[in-house]
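Possible race condition, two jobs.
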Amino acid sequence: MYSSFTMPIDPWPQQMNDYKKGEEVGSGNFATVYRGSLASDPSKKCALKVIKLSDIDEKSRALQQQELGFLRDLAHKNIVQAYTSFFVDLKTYVLVMEDMGDQDLEAYVRHELLSEYRLIPEYRIWRYLTQIADALTFVHSKNVLHRDLKTSNILKSGSLIKVGDFGLSKRVKPGGKYTERCGTPFYLAPERMGKKAYGFPSDVWSLGCIFYEMCTGVSPYFGERSNEYSLRTKIVHSDCPPISEDCYSFFVEDLIASMLQKDPAYRPDAAFVAAYARKIDNYYRTKFPDLPDI
């Protein structure tokens, strides 16, 4: 069930002309991701994250270049594998990663809920949440803070889910915290909206936002898209709309509510979320063994 989709090749080439760059599959502020393959063997697939260093400051440049180191240290079945990296020139840096196919979780959720107007079955949500929480538990065990968890950074191929994009991640000392503000506003914990110190519980909040989005199609505070001040105020002071028990079980709302606690001290850790989700996932697997595993 959890096999890799790209067989590792050792060593991976470190020159751009050794790769064939295909279609664009995603882009962000500083980087564009393309589907790729080895020029000498098109059956050897990969993803090429091309980072334009000229578009970012020195601090952001260092963060982007450290991503390979994080990914190499975070070998896990639910984390995107990194193979190698290299400079094309002084302004362009390329990270070679495994190819996870066409879809991220954001695209999947939007297709199911906003295009097809159908809810994602609850058993499937628990299955996906278990994998993301497993990955986050492992990341935190390595004293790494992700800092940019969101549905567009979760890759999906069939039933397999993998966490990617560690470009904003930080390695912290046990119990350590940060005050730097970064990441995507809709997924930021209340303590990250100002200059308060934050740590691993802020990643759990972001995971709670992902959980909520899988159920509703939007992040908890999506309605404040055009007004950052209003968004910040609502995240800090207001509760998000509850999940309807007509659509999902009490257990969904219960876990989301705990993950979106305003006070980080009252949020569960990633290991608890993984155990909670796995228990319900196992119930579905045992009670309904014929449910499609997609």
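Job #2 (started ~2 s after job #1):
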Amino acid sequence: SDVVANFHDSNLTSQLRSLYYCVPPLKEGSDSMQRFLSEELSKFMKDVKHSSDESKKPSRYNFSALPDEIIMRILRNLDLKSLCRMSRVNKHFNNLAQDHLLYTSLNLKPYWHVIKKKALYYLAPRCKYLRRLDLSWCQGIDALADCKNLREVDFGWCGSTTGHGNSFRRLFSSCQHLEKVFLTSVRGLTERTLSLTAEICHAIFMNCPKLEMIDLSFCDNIADCSIQQWQQIYTHIAIKRVHCEW
């Protein structure tokens, strides 16, 4: 009996008793719910929507909140790999990363092991103002053969040029601003594909009035007498030639 008395007098019992008296009657609870549904629910939903919209607004510390001019200045300092990654962030960054002015100089040599024809066709639409192109060690020039603003091209140590005669012809015929051409050890480059009377050679020396230098080093299929003849005729062009010593 003492245990029962102590139980009734305990704090737990008093707390349970207070909770019991706080439970509203059934009708009062029903009226409260009706009032909430009719008066307060719509206001509650508006507050939730407003809070959601606020969370979607870009923070002042968000990179996307920067003006496009600032973002473009940052993009100009990125390498090709980083630019491609930026274009995959969202649609807005993709549009910015395709700006032609970001591709005035294109060095693909570091990516020679992964650069294929498909990758070049992917880049081609962005190269409207391309001025310097380095395709050293890469394969295929077809996709970029119509870049008309080139000043310098490097096809040194490229893969076989067999079958690319039309691409070379189109490239050197349309690039009237070319100043430097590097054809170091281009495989398949022979006197027949680059001779004084051939179309490709005619396009290089005649259609490129600003040409200052052409490098034919390690192109062992081209005879020394042809090089000497060109040097005598085109004295304003530095025609470089280095032989393989081994």
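Residues 7 and 13 are 7 Å apart (CA to CA).
Logs attached separately.
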